[in-house]
């Protein structure tokens, strides 16, 4: 498979950089599905807010946006002595790291940019800035290549005509292109597999309804939107032969942090005897994290549940709200973890390190 091949949504750019008038350009996902609006981000604060408010979201896309963001935000310091340049980078890194805590790609991208600076510390700072640009483009290109390969590995587990269920959005909009959980669906679409996809709407922020339904429909895939609490029904009816989901962080034992509600889908899949596949690049596997309990789970504002999508409030003022953005699916419920390097099967503590270290 050629890496220059482009996915079915190649006209839709999730995140890119403009190096001439330096800016990170993102497709504002909070405007979807109604409007395709591109936004230019030129300051650390604008980037932080775009990540926090999910204008750019999905673990790999956050990593790419942050890498571009570092290259863009370090440009004003291009003429500074190295010590000042590095001090500004350390402040920037610390600040951006507070935007969202769960997706490991944010942190690996920041670490990679730091490593790039330190590796080139003997060069004049304007040249270090060019190295940062190249590194950020490399992170994007690696992500795109990884997604294509994840698609190919994933498709090998599926057969034409299958019913598939997915949760949240782990598609083109969550990565640099193509997707992780949705990659086999797009590849299957190109090869005439005729999958029937069920997209959970994914309360409370509706990534399934707003984003997955949007991008699959735009690509011509047969997609049906369901509320999260309908997954059991479509499974019971025999309409689902496999579940495909993405991941924000995979612990060394195979526990998977992903969008809130994922673990419930996994429990249902086990009950109905349906394989539950997790798809993500090896950069999302965090071998330094032994088990899911160690993963920091982001908690978000109550208003996302009580009023955000409604014309008027839908819960009493002052009600206690618990709004975790992610949950952890036990490795025991995961049938396989599909990466760009191949497929890991249980026991993950033994199979994942081999795949990750072959990176
Ligand atoms: O809060 P979000 O929309 O960033 O959550 C995204 C997910 O949970 C995705 O499934 C995950 O990041 C994988 S994206 C390829």
What's the CATH topology label of the largest domain?
Rossmann fold
Topology as H/E string?
A: EEEHHHHHEHEHEHEEEHEEHEEEH
Structural class: alpha/beta
Helical proportion, percent range = 25-40%
Largest sheet: 7 strands, mixed
Topology:
Layout: E1 15-18, E2 23-27, E3 38-41, H1 44-52, H2 59-73, H3 82-96, H4 104-119, H5 125-155, E4 163-166, H6 183-190, E5 196-200, H7 207-218, E6 222-226, H8 231-236, E7 242-245, E8 249-251, E9 256-259, H9 262-272, E10 276-279, E11 285-286, H10 303-306, E12 326-329, E13 336-339, E14 342-344, H11 348-357
Parallel strand pairs: 4-5, 4-7, 5-6, 7-10, 8-11, 10-13
Antiparallel strand pairs: 1-2, 2-3, 8-9, 9-12, 13-14
Helix pairs in contact: 2-4, 2-5, 3-4, 4-5, 5-6
Walk me through what this model shows.
The protein is α/β, with parallel strands linked by helices and 359 residues long. It folds into 2 domains: 15-147, Four Helix Bundle (Hemerythrin (Met), subunit A), CATH 1.20.120; 153-357, Translation initiation factor eif-2b, domain 2 (Rossmann fold, 3-Layer(aba) Sandwich). Helix content is 38%, strand content 15%. The protein has 11 helices and 14 strands. The chain has helices spanning 44-52, 59-73, 82-96, 104-119, 125-155, 183-190, 207-218, 231-236, 262-272, 303-306, 348-357; strands at residues 15-18, 23-27, 38-41, 163-166, 196-200, 222-226, 242-245, 249-251, 256-259, 276-279, 285-286, 326-329, 336-339, 342-344. The strands form 3 sheets. It has a 7-stranded mixed β-sheet. Strands 11-8-9-12 form a 4-stranded mixed β-sheet, with helices on one face. Helix 6 (183-190) links the parallel strand 4 (163-166) and strand 5. The two termini are 19 Å apart. Bound molecules: 5-S-methyl-1-O-phosphono-5-thio-D-ribulose. Residues 54, 57-60, 103, 168, 170, 174-175, 180, 207, 246-248, 258-259, 325 line the site of 5-S-methyl-1-O-phosphono-5-thio-D-ribulose.
